[in-house]
Amino acid sequence: MEDNKLFTEFPPISTEQWEAVINKDLKGADYERKLVWKTIEGFNVKPYYRAEDLEHLEYLDSNPDQKPFTRGKHSNNNVWDIRQDIGEADPVQANAIARNAIERGATALGFNAKHITDEKAMAALIDGIDTEKVKIHFNSSRNYLETLKLFVAVLQHAGRDLTKVEGSCNFDLFQYALKHGKYYRSEKEDLTEAKAMVEYGKQTLPKFRTLTVNGSALHNAGSNIVQELGFSMAAANELVARLSDMGCTVEHVASSIAVNFATGSNYFMEIAKIRAARLLWSKIIEQYQPKCDCVYKLFVNCVSSTWNKSVFDPYVNMLRTTTETMSAAIAGADSISTIPFDSAYKEADDFGYRIARNQQLLLKEESYMDKIVDPAAGSYYIENLTDSIAQHAWQLFVTVESKGGFCKALREGYVQDEVERVARQRDADIATRKTTILGTNQYPNLAETMSDKVGSHPCDCNATAADEIRVLHPYRGAEAFEQLRLSTERSGKRPRVFLLTYGNLAMRKARSGFATNFFGVAGYEVIDNAGFKSAEEGVKAALDAHADIVVLCSSDDEYAEIAENACKGLKGKVKSIVLAGYPKEMVDTYRGYGIDEFIHVKTNALECLTAFQKLMGII
Hints:
By secondary structure, the chain is an alpha/beta fold. The radius of gyration is 28 Å and the shape is globular. The strands form three sheets. Strands 7-6-5-4-3-11-10-9-8 form a nine-stranded parallel beta sheet. It has a five-stranded parallel beta sheet with strand order 13-12-14-15-16, with helices on both faces. It has a two-stranded antiparallel sheet with strand order 1-2. It has 22 helices and 16 strands.
């Protein structure tokens, strides 16, 4: 075949030539500070990548459906299951929801089996569901082994071919320990039950995965992507190592494990995470020298992150879950559970479920993402992200192994310490608005109220300081800002923020917009203005408006013209006088005039607004 190259009239450009142009455009600015992204995972991302950056990536020599399976487990498609997780505990009602979901496109179901205590209840739960076509996952249970036995009994009574039944049990002793501060019974007894689960599963339901590792639990406690992946691989390896020592075959254990990852809003990084997971799993399993290559194929279920979901402006959650679902699909997840967009503040209903399913149906039936093998292949950027995440997650995995394995790392608190360290950093980034949660800590919908829609969400954790394992609490990054605004709504007091705008049109509009966002996230009423000709005119209008807070909005130079007179007219007549900006050289002078606070891009908005809430008598 003739090797004809396109665009031969364009000569190749070397990296050195690109760099020369970039440095020229930077005009002396620091390259690293301006263009290199320093991720919270601990590695740097370059501003661009080229073919030469792929030369060291050995896994690119393999095809899809070949070890190490970085490129996926399929050679002719990219199919995944549309999974709907149903929280309803009543078996009859859960069955009705499930059957409706199947009719509308779901191909996998997640059930709450806590109230399934006999065959009658199990039969009611799966009544009318073709379990040879629809995969069944048990998300919660009082006793997973008993639930599995009831499931098998009902299937046998119905004459189902058990070799065709697929699904999983969410039996994860590590997640339980992190949530409750102790194992289901004890570490030894839980591992014994895990062994029984594997053996019973292989005897009765050979395609069923009876053990789960929930990386999502780490993600939703604030971990970064490397931690979610590295610790998940360490937990999965712990199961393989310990259960094989107890007499299970490596093949049986490895093929019994499902991994649940949460998928967040970091679009390309999430794609890379799932690809890196398959790479690391192959590297780990290779050390056990299994007799069957099938155990190299990691089963990955992806569920939408709850950490980044918000109560306010909840329809933004639809955008978040869409990109998260796309990341999982492009990365080749085996099944995807898209959560209802409003699950941050209410129980799921038919509308939320329908939107969640349809997001996946659109990706399949209109975007054809299930037709293309390894859609991310060849992307210099994603391939390098995959490698970076894999390298750093592997280092974390090795560290855990050096501590004696995942169980020992949990007991000594290493896993918890590392996740909490990153969670604190993420919280600080949200508080200072370095990280934006749209509609919550930036760009709020000022007319929106949510206090009548938000119920209480009590933690069902029963951990105490005396427990053997320190817990990790799941939370949402938006919660602290949401509490500020909900406190305002519930107090019945809505402080009035008056923007005293003056001078340069561009600067006063920019700073009034900044101030509107700043106080809007706490639910305050913001009164903007077209601009005043003098400080005295602005003061009179502010007092006529019965303002609680007055914010001066102008340019740094023009503050010198109005600050003193504005403070004279307002001091003692409003609760606080604020200046938008931080004219560093004049800060002490303005404080002497009576300015109480300066708000600017480096302000810790959470701390500042909390202080205002106290000043206003709201908290």
